[in-house]
Specification:
heterodimer, A: 458 residues, alpha/beta, three-stranded antiparallel beta sheet, 16 helices, extended, B: alpha+beta, 4 domains, five-stranded mixed beta sheet, 23 helices, 11 strands, globular
C-alpha cells in the first residue's frame, strides 16, 4: 500500500503540486508507514459498566422491561413528533431525535432500529473526558503481576465475522427494511422532506401483478357485457341481419359462442420504479470520529428516505475508498471500517462507473450516488475526479456529495474543484453538494439531505 | 401490578422476624407487588415510583428504553423504593427459596433507608403519597395551562441535579459550635487564613498574643485585642460586617434562588410554575441519598441476605441454588466494578477488623507485617461497629476510610488499565496498580459527582443577569447540553443567564499526522475560562480574561 501511495505521489508530483498539498500527502503516506495510530475519538474504548449500572431487579431477579414491536412504536412516534412541532412554534428547539441504532448482527445481518430519543440536558461533567486522557479502565480482581496483560478485546467486533455468506436469513433482512422504511416515512412526513416528483422511467421487470385486465373470446372469468354486445352487432352486420340502423330488431340476431367476450385473469408487468443507491465513503485516515459518524448517519437517513419513496424497491451498494476503492458487502462494514491511508476521490467514482457499466445497471435502475468525504483529496485540482463525475452524471438520477469539514472556514479541495468545474450550475438536477462542519447536529443533517435530494431548481 | 399472595407474604413476615432478631431495625409495614415486564416498561422511567407525575419525556424514555434494550440488554431497575411503607417488586414465578433470598436483600435495603442518616430528610413522610398528590396537582395545572406545564417541568428538571442536598442535610443536623464570639472566629478562621493568608508562624504568634491578652486582662481581653487588630488592619471591621450579613442567609441552590428572586415566576400569572418547580426539587432531593450510597446500600443488603439466608431453617436443600445465584450477584468481576461484591466484602472486612480491634491506633502504627497479621485484641465489637457504619457513612466516606492495603491485598484487587495494542488491534487490559491508594482514588473518581454551580451576585447585577459560576475541578461540562439547559434557566429566570466554566484548549494535532510514540511527552491540558451567555434564546461564548 505504501508503495502504491508513493507511486501516486510521484505521479502527482510530476504534474506539479502546491507545497502545502505536498506536505499533506507526505504526512498521510508517513501515517501509513507508521503503525496505525490510536485515535481516541475514532477508537472509543469500550465502556465498562460502572457501579451505577447494577440494579436489584436485574441482578437478583433477571427482570427487564418488555420489548414492543416497532409498529406500535411508530404510532407513538407520531404523537411525539406532533408535540415536537408545537415546541418549535413556541420558540424552543426540537427535542425528539429520531435515533437510529445499527445493531450489528453476525455475518453482516445488521439491522437498523428506529427509536425516538430525547435527551434530558443538564449541566454535567463530561464522562468521556477522563477516559480519553487516562487509561484507567476501572477496577479488577484476581491474579496477575503489575503490568501483566490479563485480557484482550478486539477493537472492531466486525472484523471477525463480516462478509455475508450464503444462508443469510430473509427475515432479518426484512426487519432492517421495515424499520428503515418507517424512518423514511417519518422523514418525509414529519420533517417535510420532499417527495420525489419524478422517480425516473426505469422499470422493474421482475415483479408481476395479476389482474382482470385482458379480454378473451369464448371463455373467461367475467362477462364483459358491453364488449360482447358490440361484437354481436358486428357479427350481425356482416351477416346482413341489420338492414335498417334506425329500426333494430334484436330478436333476429344470431349469437355465436365466439362473440362472448370475457375478462380473464392475466399476468401484468409491474411498473414500479426501482432504485440502486451507491453509498460512497472516504475512509482515509483523516476521516476519524465525528466526520465518519456524520456521513454515515446522513447516509442511513438518505437510504431510509429512498426506501420510502421507492416503496422498498431500493438496492444498496457500499463503496469505501482511500487511494483505492473497494466494495463492501454490508452497512456494518461500511460503517466501521477505517484505515490510515491517503485520499483519492477519483478511485471511488471510477469504481462506481465500472460497476454500473459491467452490470449494465443504467438500463434497469434509477441510480443514485451519495458520496461522503471530509473534502481532502490528493488530486487537488480534480483532474481525475471531474471526468469520472461527468461520466457518472450521464446515467445517474442524482449525485449527492456531502463534505464534512473538520473546521469551518477555508474550503476543502473537493469543494473547490467541484465548484470550479461548474457542474453544480450546469446540471443542478443531477448533482448537488452539501458542506457541513463536523459539529453539525441531526437537524443540520436533515437540512443537508433536503439540499441533496430536492428537485427544485435553484 | 398486584400484591403477592398470602403464602409469599407469610414467608416475607418470617424473614422480617429473623432479620429483627439479627439486629436490623425497620418499620413493620411493607408492600410487595408482583410485576411483569410490561409493568416495568411504565415503572422504570418513573424510577420505580408508581405515582410519580406524568411527563412526556418519560414516554420517549420508555421508547428509548425499548430500543436500548434491544441493543444492550441491561438497565437500572430497583427492587425496593424508600417509601412508607416500603414498596418492593417481584417476578411472579420466583421459587420460594429465591424469594427468601430477595426478601432478605430487600429488608437490608429497607433497614438502610430507614437508619442511614443521609436519608434523614425522607423519614418523616411517605413519598408515594406526596407524589400522588403532586401528580394530581400537575395534572390539574396541565388542564389549565396546557403544554406550558411540560416546559416548566423540563426546564426545572434541567437543573435538578444542582439541588443543594448537603445544605438540606446541614439544616437537619445543625453543627454544635463552640460559643466563641463570632468576631474572634472570623478573625482567626477566615480573616487571617483566607484574606490575609499569613504565614503559620505569624498565625501562631497571633494566637499567643491573644492568649497572653486573655491571661492579662481576662474579661476585657476581647476589646483590648481587637483594638490592636483595628489599628493594624483598618479594613477588618468593614469586612466583618459584610461577612456577618452574608453568613446570616444560608446559601440557596439554583432552584431556590430562582424561586425566590426570579421576576418571571413571581409574576401573578406565573405563580403556578413555582408549584411545579418545588415538586421537581423535592423529587430530586428525595433521590439524592440513593445515588450517594449505592455501594454501601448494595453491600449492606448483600451482606445480610447472605448471612440471614444461610441461617434460615426454611430453605434447607437449596443451598446450592442459592450459592449459584449469590455468586452471580456478588462475585468480584475480573475487570469492572460491582457494588454488591465490593460493598459486601468491605462490610465483612470492617466487621472482622472491628472484631480484632484493628481499627485502633495500636494496630495502625504497627509496621511489622507478621505482627499485623497476627494482631487480635479480641475486642468482639464487629457487628456493633458495622451498624454504626451503616448509620453514619455514605459511599465517599465509606471508601475513603476503609479501602486500605490489607483489603486490596486480601481480595487481589487492582486498578485495571487499558491500552491499545496496535499490531493486534485489540484493547489490552492489564494490571495497572495494586496500590490501595490508587484503587481508592479510582473508586472515588467513579462516584457520582454533579458539577458545583454557585451564583455570583456581584457580576449578575447589571441587566437582571443571572451569573453562574461552575467550580473548576479539572472536569469540563458536556458542551452539547449547555445550550438547552441555559435556555431553560433563562426561561425560568426571565432574563439573560451567564455561565462561567473552564474548558480544555483543543489539542492542535489532527489525526492524519503520526503521533510521537511516547505519550508521556504530551503536554498537560491547558485550561481556559469561558463564559457562555444565553440571551433571548441565543447562546454566545466568549473567553474570559
Amino acid at each position: 500500500m505504501k508503495n502504491e501511495m508513493r507511486e501516486i505521489y510521484l505521479r502527482l508530483k510530476a504534474r506539479g503540486l502546491s507545497p502545502e498539498l505536498e506536505k499533506k500527502i507526505l504526512s498521510e503516506i508517513n501515517a501509513v508507514e507508521a503503525p496505525p495510530l490510536a485515535d481516541e475519538t475514532a477508537l472509543k474504548p469500550p465502556v465498562l459498566p460502572g457501579v451505577y449500572a447494577f440494579a436489584d431487579l436485574q441482578a437478583l431477579q433477571s427482570l427487564t422491561a418488555a420489548v414492543q414491536n416497532h409498529t406500535s412504536q411508530v404510532r407513538t412516534i407520531d404523537d411525539l413528533l406532533a408535540k415536537d412541532r408545537q415546541r418549535e412554534k413556541d420558540g424552543f428547539p426540537r427535542k425528539v431525535r429520531v435515533g437510529r441504532m445499527i445493531k450489528p448482527g453476525r455475518g453482516g445481518k445488521d439491522k437498523v432500529v428506529v427509536v425516538p430519543t430525547a435527551t434530558e440536558e443538564k449541566l454535567m461533567h463530561d464522562p468521556s473526558f477522563r477516559d480519553q486522557e487516562e487509561e484507567t479502565a476501572g477496577g479488577g480482581s484476581g491474579e496477575g503481576e503489575q503490568g501483566e496483560v490479563i485480557g484482550e478485546e478486539p477493537v472492531r467486533q466486525s472484523e471477525k465475522g463480516s462478509g455475508a455468506g450464503p444462508g443469510q436469513g430473509e427475515g432479518e433482512q426484512h426487519e432492517l427494511e421495515s424499520s428503515a422504511y418507517d424512518l423514511g416515512r417519518i422523514l418525509t412526513e414529519q420533517f417535510e422532506l420532499p417527495n420525489l416528483k419524478d422517480k425516473g422511467k426505469k422499470r422493474s421487470l421482475t415483479r408481476y401483478t395479476y389482474d382482470l385486465t385482458d379480454r378473451h373470446r369464448g371463455f373467461g372469468q367475467v362477462l364483459d357485457k358491453k364488449a360482447t354486445l358490440r361484437k354481436i352487432v358486428e357479427t350481425n352486420i356482416h351477416l346482413g341481419n341489420l338492414p335498417d340502423v334506425d329500426n333494430i330488431d334484436t330478436l333476429d340476431f344470431l349469437i355465436s359462442p365466439k362473440d362472448m367476450i370475457y375478462r380473464i385473469l392475466s399476468r401484468e408487468k409491474d411498473f414500479e420504479s426501482q432504485a440502486m443507491v451507491f453509498f460512497v465513503r472516504d475512509y482515509s485516515g483523516s476521516m476519524v470520529g465525528k466526520t465518519t459518524e456524520l456521513v454515515v448517519a446522513q447516509h442511513v437517513l438518505i437510504y431510509s428516505w429512498l426506501l420510502y419513496q421507492y416503496a422498498n424497491q431500493v438496492q444498496t451498494r457500499f463503496i469505501l475508498h482511500d487511494t483505492t476503492a473497494k466494495e463492501v458487502p454490508d452497512f456494518y462494514t461500511y460503517y466501521n471500517s477505517k484505515v490510515a491511508g491517503g485520499t483519492q476521490v477519483s478511485s471511488a467514482y471510477k469504481l462506481v462507473n465500472e460497476i454500473v457499466e459491467k452490470e449494465n445497471l443504467a438500463q434497469d435502475y434509477n441510480i443514485y450516488v451519495f458520496h461522503g468525504t471530509d473534502g481532502d483529496d490528493w488530486d487537488a485540482e480534480g483532474r481525475e475526479s471531474i471526468p469520472q463525475l461527468k461520466i457518472m452524471m450521464r446515467y445517474a438520477n442524482r449525485v449527492g456529495i456531502t463534505i464534512a469539514q473538520h473546521s469551518a472556514g477555508s474550503s476543502t479541495e473537493v469543494e473547490k474543484y467541484i465548484k470550479k468545474s461548474g457542474l453544480l450550475e450546469q446540471a443542478p438536477e443531477l448533482i448537488r453538494m452539501d458542506v457541513l462542519t463536523d459539529d453539525a447536529d441531526e437537524s443540520r443533517l436533515i437540512e443537508g439531505i433536503r439540499k441533496l435530494i430536492s428537485q427544485d431548481k435553484r | 401490578m398486584e400484591l403477592i399472595n398470602q403464602h409469599t407474604k407469610k414467608i416475607m413476615e418470617g424473614c422480617k422476624e429473623r432479620a429483627r432478631a439479627a439486629g436490623l431495625r425497620f418499620e413493620n409495614e411493607s408492600l410487595e407487588y408482583v410485576v411483569t415486564n410490561r409493568d416495568l416498561l411504565e415503572l422504570s422511567p418513573k424510577i420505580m415510583i408508581p405515582t410519580l407525575y406524568d411527563y412526556w419525556v418519560h414516554d420517549v424514555e420508555v421508547l428509548k428504553g425499548k430500543g436500548k434494550y434491544e441493543l444492550y440488554p441491561h438497565n437500572p431497575y430497583e427492587t425496593v423504593i424508600n417509601t412508607r411503607p416500603a414498596i418492593s417488586y417481584y417476578n411472579d414465578n420466583n421459587p420460594d427459596w429465591l424469594n427468601v433470598m430477595i426478601f432478605y436483600h430487600v429488608i437490608g435495603h429497607i433497614d438502610f433507608f430507614q437508619n442511614n442518616l443521609y436519608f434523614r430528610h425522607t423519614w418523616d413522610y411517605d413519598f408515594t403519597g406526596e407524589a400522588l398528590s403532586d401528580k394530581r396537582v400537575i395534572a390539574k395545572l396541565r388542564s389549565e395551562h396546557g403544554h406550558w406545564v411540560d416546559y416548566v417541568i423540563e426546564f426545572a428538571r434541567g437543573i435538578d441535579n444542582l439541588v443543594g442536598y448537603f445544605p438540606e442535610l446541614h439544616r437537619l443536623f445543625p453543627v454544635a459550635t463552640t460559643q466563641l464570639p463570632a468576631r474572634l472566629d472570623y478573625y482567626f478562621d477566615v480573616f487571617l487564613q483566607n484574606i490575609k493568608k499569613v504565614k503559620t508562624s505569624e498565625y501562631i504568634k497571633e494566637i499567643e498574643r491573644y492568649n497572653q491578652c486573655k491571661a492579662e486582662y481576662a474579661d476585657l481581653c476581647d476589646d483590648m485585642f481587637f483594638a490592636e487588630v483595628d489599628r493594624r488592619h483598618p479594613e477588618f471591621k468593614a469586612l466583618f460586617t459584610k461577612y456577618k450579613e452574608h453568613k446570616s442567609t444560608p446559601p440557596l441552590d439554583l432552584i431556590q434562588y430562582i424561586l425566590e428572586n426570579s421576576a418571571f415566576v413571581n409574576k401573578e400569572e406565573n405563580k403556578w410554575m413555582k408549584i411545579i418547580i418545588e415538586v421537581i426539587r423535592k423529587t430530586s432531593l428525595f433521590f439524592q441519598p440513593q445515588i450517594r450510597t449505592k455501594i454501601m446500600n448494595e453491600g449492606w443488603a448483600s451482606y445480610w441476605h447472605e448471612i440471614l439466608f444461610l441461617q434460615d431453617d426454611r430453605i434447607e436443600g437449596h443451598e446450592v441454588d442459592f450459592a449459584r445465584v449469590n455468586a452471580g450477584v456478588t462475585a468480584m468481576p475480573r475487570v469492572g466494578l460491582n457494588p454488591y461484591a465490593l460493598g459486601m466484602r468491605l462490610f465483612y472486612a470492617i466487621e472482622e477488623w472491628a472484631d480484632k480491634g484493628r481499627l485502633t491506633w495500636d494496630f495502625q502504627r504497627l509496621t511489622d507485617a507478621y505482627q499485623r497479621e497476627k494482631f487480635d485484641s479480641t475486642l468482639g465489637r464487629g457487628r456493633e461497629f458495622i451498624f454504626h457504619v451503616r448509620e453514619n457513612l455514605c459511599d465517599f466516606t465509606f471508601i475513603n476510610q476503609f479501602i486500605n492495603q490489607d483489603f486490596v491485598t486480601r481480595h487481589d484487587l487492582f486498578v485495571a488499565g487499558r491500552r491499545l495494542n496496535e499490531s493486534k488491534m485489540v484493547w489490552e487490559y492489564y494490571v495497572k496498580s495494586r496500590n490501595s491508594g490508587d484503587y481508592r482514588q479510582m473508586l472515588l473518581d467513579s462516584l457520582y459527582h454533579p458539577p458545583r454551580i454557585s451564583i455570583d451576585h456581584e457580576k449578575g447585577k447589571r441587566d437582571n443577569t443571572l451569573y453562574l459560576v461552575h467550580l473548576f475541578e479539572h472536569k469540563p461540562l458536556i458542551k452539547e447540553f449547555i445550550t438547552n439547559t441555559l435556555m431553560g434557566i433563562e426561561y425560568l429566570w426571565g432574563g439573560p443567564v451567564e455561565l462561567e466554566t473552564h474548558e480544555p484548549l483543543p489539542k492542535a494535532a489532527r489525526s492524519d499526522r503520526p503521533k510521537s510514540a511516547d505519550r508521556a511527552g504530551e503536554p498537560p491540558i491547558q485550561w481556559q475560562r469561558v463564559v457562555y451567555t444565553m440571551k433571548e434564546r441565543k447562546l454566545s461564548r466568549r473567553v474570559a480574561a
